[in-house]
């Protein structure tokens, strides 16, 4: 018996679940889990179905599903296989370390193909874990040249997603377009307040009581792409800048890894500038 995940998004209408399950049954597929959601405001339907069975003809199954769904439906059939990722970094190690340790022990749900950094700071750590590290200098260089060099490295590998693990360079619209829906970023959730350098010091000086982190897909609008997951922690007057930075890094790691797990398990649909997440 083989595992199959069926992802469907389409305009909502009466009878969708019946039509879908009938087609799956006709192909001798057993449904072991099914989640669905209707976005009533946009009249949109989303479902994630986990099946088992011996699928003989994936193209025929997809064709049959589309025949029984409204126009503009999207159907993805996913057999169990690990995603392939590239990780982009600058100097901060905490998110990269979490990813590489999970990758080392085969608990990431994906394979890290390479790490690309615009500083050499994280090379030794990366290479000690057997992952190739590529240095791409950004200084005194046009952004288009810098990004072209990054693309050249990425294109050496078969990559499903790019993970920005505290990569602190703003990517151009052209770069984002080339990897639309495939770039995941993590940042502190003070935005739009406390922008720029030293956000935790700014937050400390303002006396904030909550810190958090947001993982999202990258779009042309800086830090405003569809949100995958968020978390917050409470802080108080006992937290100095160092304690806030430490707490911030912990929650950034937690949120990024949670978002990656959801994506690698095909639990996230993008709908406009929002997401539908089947946890």
From TrEMBL:
Its EC number is 3.5.1.10. InterPro entries: ACT-like_dom_sf, ACT_dom, Formyl_transf_N, Formyl_transf_N_sf, PurU, PurU_ACT. It catalyses: (6R)-10-formyltetrahydrofolate + H2O = (6S)-5,6,7,8-tetrahydrofolate + formate + H(+). It is an enzyme of class 3 (hydrolase). Residues 5-80 form the ACT domain. Pathway: Purine metabolism; IMP biosynthesis via de novo pathway; formate from 10-formyl-5,6,7,8-tetrahydrofolate: step 1/1. The active site is at residue 223. Keywords: Hydrolase, One-carbon metabolism, Purine biosynthesis. Belongs to the PurU family. Catalyzes the hydrolysis of 10-formyltetrahydrofolate (formyl-FH4) to formate and tetrahydrofolate (FH4). HAMAP family: PurU. This is Formyltetrahydrofolate deformylase.
């Amino acid at each position: 018996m083989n595992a199959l995940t069926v992802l469907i998004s389409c305009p909502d209408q009466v009878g969708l679940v019946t039509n879908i399950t009938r087609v799956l049954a006709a192909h001798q597929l057993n449904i072991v889990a099914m989640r669905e959601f209707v976005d009533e405001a946009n009249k949109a339907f989303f479902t994630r179905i986990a099946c088992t069975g011996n699928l003989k003809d994936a193209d025929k199954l997809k064709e049959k599903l589309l025949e029984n769904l409204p126009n503009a439906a999207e159907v993805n059939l996913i057999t169990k296989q690990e995603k392939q990722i590239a990780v982009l970094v600058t100097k901060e190690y905490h998110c990269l370390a979490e990813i590489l340790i999970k990758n080392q022990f085969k608990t990431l749900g994906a394979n890290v193909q390479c790490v690309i950094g615009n500083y050499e700071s994280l090379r030794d750590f990366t290479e000690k874990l057997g992952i190739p590290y590529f240095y791409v200098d950004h200084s005194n260089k046009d952004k288009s040249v810098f990004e072209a060099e990054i693309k050249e490295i990425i294109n050496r590998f078969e990559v499903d997603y790019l993970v920005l693990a505290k990569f602190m360079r703003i990517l151009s619209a052209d770069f984002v377009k080339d990897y639309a829906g495939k770039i995941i970023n993590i940042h502190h959730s003070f935005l739009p307040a406390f922008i720029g350098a030293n956000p935790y010091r700014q937050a400390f000086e303002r006396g904030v009581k909550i810190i958090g982190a947001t993982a999202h897909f990258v779009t042309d609008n800086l830090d405003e792409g569809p949100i995958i997951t968020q978390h917050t922690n409470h802080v108080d007057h006992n937290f100095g800048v160092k304690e806030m930075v430490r707490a911030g890094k912990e929650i950034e790691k937690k949120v990024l890894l949670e978002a990656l797990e959801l994506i690698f398990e095909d639990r996230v649909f993008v709908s406009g500038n929002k997401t539908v997440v089947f946890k």
